[in-house]
Specification:
The complex is a heterodimer of chains A (about 525) and B (about 400).
Chain A: E1 6-14, E2 17-22, E3 33-37, E4 41-54, H1 58-70, H2 81-84, E5 85-98, E6 104-105, E7 116-119, E8 134-142, E9 145-155, H3 156-161, E10 164-167, H4 174-185, E11 191-197, H5 216-219, E12 220-224, E13 233-234, E14 237-238, H6 255-268, H7 272-278, H8 290-304, E15 306-308, E16 314-316, E17 321-322, H9 330-339, E18 343-347, H10 353-377, E19 385-390, H11 394-397, H12 399-404, H13 409-416, E20 422-428, H14 436-441, E21 444-448, H15 453-461, H16 471-475, E22 481-486, E23 493-496, H17 500-507
Parallel strand pairs in A: 10-20, 10-21, 11-18, 11-19, 12-13, 12-18, 14-17, 19-20
Antiparallel strand pairs in A: 1-2, 1-7, 2-5, 3-4, 3-7, 4-5, 5-6, 8-9, 8-23, 15-16, 21-22, 22-23
Helix pairs in contact in A: 6-7, 6-8, 9-10
Chain B: E1 2-5, H1 17-36, E2 41-45, H2 56-71, E3 76-79, H3 92-98, E4 103-104, E5 108-110, E6 116-118, E7 121-122, E8 129-133, H4 141-147, H5 150-155, E9 160-165, E10 167-168, E11 181-182, E12 193-197, E13 203-205, E14 213-215, H6 224-231, E15 237-243, E16 247-254, H7 261-273, E17 281-285, E18 288-290, H8 300-309, E19 314-318, E20 322-324, H9 337-348, H10 361-375, H11 385-400
Parallel strand pairs in B: 1-2, 2-3, 3-4, 8-9, 9-12, 10-11, 12-14, 17-19, 18-20
Antiparallel strand pairs in B: 1-15, 5-6, 7-8, 13-14, 15-16
Classes of the chains: A alpha/beta (about 525), B alpha/beta (about 400).
Chain lengths: ~525, ~400
Amino acid sequence: MEEIAIVGQVVGGKFGDIVIRQKAGSNLEIGDLMVSEENGSILILQVFALEYGSQIQDKMQQMMSGVNLEQGIVDAQFYEPEFVNYVLARIKPLARVYRESGDVKIPKSLPSFFNKLRLITSNDLNFLHKEKDSIFVGYIRSGSKVIKEAEVWLPSEDVFSHHVLIPATTGRGKSNLVKTILWHVLDSNKVGALVLDAHDEYFGRQGVGLKDHPRARENLVYYTPSNPPAGANRLTVNLQSVKPEHFEGIVDFSDAQFQAIRSYYWKQRDTWLTTLMLTAPEAAEDRIASITMSVIQRKMRLILGLVKDEEGHLVSKHEVFDSATKGFTTVDDIVKDIEQGKVVVLDTSRLGDEAELIVGNIIATKLFEKYKAYKATGELARKPVATVVIEEAPRVIGVDVLTTKNDNIYSTIAKEGRKFKVGLTAITQLSSVIPRSILANMNTKIILGNEMKQEREAIISSASQDLSEDDKNIASLDKGEAIITSIFVPFAMPIKIPLFEDIVKEKGILAQTGKTKVF
Amino acid sequence: MRFAHLSDIHLGFQKHEALQKIEQQVFEKIFDQCIARKVDFILIPGDLFHVNIPEMRVQKFAFAKFRQIYDAEIPVYVVYGSHDFSPVSNSVIDLLAEVGYITKVTKATSSDDGKIKLDFLVDKKTGVKIAGLSGLKVGKDREYYEKLDSSSLEAELGFKIFLFHGGISEMKTESGMEGEHMPLSLLPRYFDYYAGGHMHKFNAQKFDDHPNVVYPGTPFAGYHSDLEDNAKGQKRGFVIVEFEDKIKSIEFIEIENTRIADSVNKELQDKIRDVDPTQQVIIIKVQGEMTKGKTADVDISAIRDELNLKGALVVNINKNQLTSKEYSITEAKGANKEEIEINVFSENIGQLRFEQKNLVGEPGVQLAKKLLAGFVQQKLENEKNADYNARIKKNAFGILGLDTDAS
């Protein structure tokens, strides 16, 4: 996109809603970025609305149309049509870039009246350069035009410790975006990630995926419950790792049921869950009513998929939980990997909703506790930022969950994780059901297309930049198009996220050749 | 049919004579049992020796014992471990293989695409098919397994055993287990038995595609921490596996290896039994490391009394060089000197067994802190040694609440 041509001229309006007349033949689009050359700086502006303008009165135009349509005179035309009829674009200033220093500031003044505007070029965006240890999210987009030379990189440590929200409806490129982000997280060890992959789509078990990253061997760890592909780990968590608090805020247990659960934990410690599940309801300890015991056992059976085998051992239907000799170190191993700045992907596609959250809860709790301890001992500065990537986030940080149940680890991280370098990367279709206090804490939002007005309003009202005029813009975002609003970018940036498959094609592992010496 | 599976013997690791003796005895006991139990073959997946070329003493008894096994017509199948590995076949393992006492299992070829293909060797007597990969230094193993052509190994029919040397993540039982571990999914599937080495505690697990993954653990010690574990009662030994066309049983055979005060006392008694101490100056030096108990449990006074009774002129017994693993000091971190001191005391006070409550727990830590502060006092200018000693002693007794006169 090298065209440097005048596309319009400032003709009126006010700050935040400037009116320009479009030059005939320019064909401006919603979201187009344009530049007003000023003294010593340039002002970057964005189109947020388009309408017709004309020098001829409406009634006259309507009459002319009548002549055309009703009297069959087909060649009735305006005299100098491009002069009398035109398009008016309403634009808002995004940023002022100072030529000498390269500083980018929030604009506080209007462009010069009658100033001519041109479309943005890659040279105007030279301030967007890649910092060390940053993550690539896409290219600057002007309307539907992509400026490939202007790459958008976000400072990974800052962004992930201050939480990320990815709001989008189905089919707008959510999974492509998450894969793109994680791909760049794999580049370094500055950010560790726990990814609860409910659809088993990130690793690339079939087709391309994060496994194709050149540093996947060192930085990517994949856990799956069964038939792990070569190099992957089996996701088995020993029941001894499960504690009563891991159910809090996730599973509905009555007070009496929770009391019974805690009573078993205090008495049996590590083996509490196995003992609880294998005890006949009528033989329950501590005068726990047999009906209470039965309900707890039924819920546990459903949530964790636990069944008693022929020999009386407790086994998990989806093989994730083990009551015998396996999975003692899984949680610690995962936490250790995250602490080393690795991306740990858990395939939870075979787990039910609650079981997935509990597995995540066990790991995230341990991770958060460790990071808290590191802060106390002064070791936190040496640790990478950790992020927990969770889909359908309202399951754990939705208003209804947080008001009817106790806090869970995810809401705790959302509220206070930043102090301990632990962040949440929440993916959701429903931002409106996440409390404003949590939404406001999510300091980077990568907004994909969303046709639901209520959801757009929730996102706009909690954005880091003023998006009050962007409602239609968000509604019209195509697949792979997004707007980044963040305290770490100078203005709300329209971006185009590249296809993950193209990234892999360009940067993925090359097939190795040459013999290997074997001893 | 049956085979034995042992690993991580680490011959040549021990520095103290007494421990060297145990190391050797344990090794010999295992081979004696293999002969007695008439095993069809023996598997050793790595770290038979602590280094690739151990000292001559170690080679000597190892060769002697392997000769015995050879004479008993029991084949021994081996892969290198991370300790006895040699990239240029310059290991005592190669020497043993050269003379025919053992057989190296790894039969690998590499193709142009970098893939590693392994061939089976077949045990003549039983027809068992054996394949394996050596353990390498500095975590190169994973790369090898990623390049391994597993499909040809998996397609092979018959009773199959795979020898490997390396940590498997799914086999970890404690979070503190350091070092590189690789996922089980890297091992080729559908072998009847996976004979593992490298992990030092006995562990046998079953998985869907890997039905029997077994580590016998070290029979004595390959790390100092193994001795600590021995002191805490860790069972050591090797594995005997019964099989026909499938595995029938896997039995862990325990081999005693601990050295405690009773055995030291007995050894001392045995040694003085044949000595005539009449009119002699007797000097006894006891040195080494006990795997269990306190050094105070070694009863010197009984030995001294007995020698005196037999008419010794002077009996001088020195056990300064005798230590016990049970009383080793664990290091602890802290932000400053004082914090480190407190953390070290707190970390280690649990090892002490005193009835006096002020010597254990938090009061014990505080007392130790005060005592340390008393002991680090410097000698004053012009203060005589005797006065300095007396002052420090008096101060220490004061801290301990003891009456100096009564002492």
